[in-house]
Structures are given as C-alpha cells and as structure tokens.
Amino acid sequence: MAEGSVSEVETSFQKFAVHGDSKATGKEMNGKNFVKLCKDCHIIDGKSVTSTDVDIVFSKVKEKSARVITFEQFNLALTELAPKRFKGKSTEEALEKLYALVVGRGPSNAGVTKVAKAAAVDRLTDTTKYTGSHKERFDDSGKGKGKAGREDAADASGYVSSYKGSGTYDEKVKEA
Prior knowledge:
Blueprint: H1 3-18, E1 28-30, H2 31-40, H3 51-61, E2 68-70, H4 71-85, H5 91-102, H6 119-124, H7 132-135, H8 147-150, H9 169-175
Antiparallel strand pairs: 1-2
Helix pairs in contact: 1-2, 2-3, 3-4, 4-5
Region (Disordered): 131-176
GO biological process, one term: microtubule polymerization
GO molecular function: tubulin binding
C-alpha cells in the first residue's frame, strides 16, 4: 500500500473521530463513530458486512477496558473487515479496496433535519398582515423595532415622576 494513502486514511479517521464530540482530539475513535465511518464509507453493505460485524470487530481490536480505538487498532479492524467485504480477493487486495472507500471521506450529514418552509409559517410571520398593537412593532420594511416597538417609553422629562408636559410651567404662570 502506498504511503500517501495511509495518511489520507488517517485524515478520514480523524474527521470521523471528532464527529459529534467537541472534546475529541482525533487520536481515538469511539464505537459509534466507527460504525458511522463504516456506514458512510460503504464498508457496511448490509450483506457481507453488517453493523453487528463492525461492532464485533471494534470490540475485538480495542483494549479490554477502553471505549475507544487508536489509528493502529483502526487499521487492525479494517484488516479484519476487508476479506469479509471483498470476498474472493487476497487480503492485500481487499484491504487496498477498503482503504480506497475510506480515503477522502468525512462524516456525511445525510438525513439532517431541514428547516420547514411551509405556507402556514410564511403566513404567520408576514408582518404586513399584522394589526393592532403588533403592527407597531415593525417598521415599513418588516424589520422588528426591538424594545422600542414593545414598550411605551416613559416620558421622564418633568419635575416629578408623573409630571407630564415639560416646558409648560412658564405658560401657566403667565396666565395666572
């Protein structure tokens, strides 16, 4: 096997090792991510290699008390899975084909929940159709005014808290 492909396989290993785990370093991979790698890279084909086979191989190559595998153990696992996946090929040839499946792959996010854009949602969020006090919360472009649109700002311009009409005192004195 070419030296370049080992580093490429290791790059894929690291991408899957850190998938979904913010604390992961990329040096070790847990069982869940190993199964994900096998699924995403089509090592699991549902016929000759199933997720159960992958779990068994993972348990076999990891340390007794460990819950993760290193890259070396990952290579052992692939060596074990290769003849199962590519029956009738030599071990080296099967491993070569298996590495080819892994190289350049990263975790795919197939089936990730999409944002639903239904007509009902559009209708409910169309600010032009708002009436009453809700209408005041948006400017002409439909952008929210923030806090200014939600509260009546208190006029604290008078002498005391409830005094309304700043600047009218002098006029009242002249009238008297």
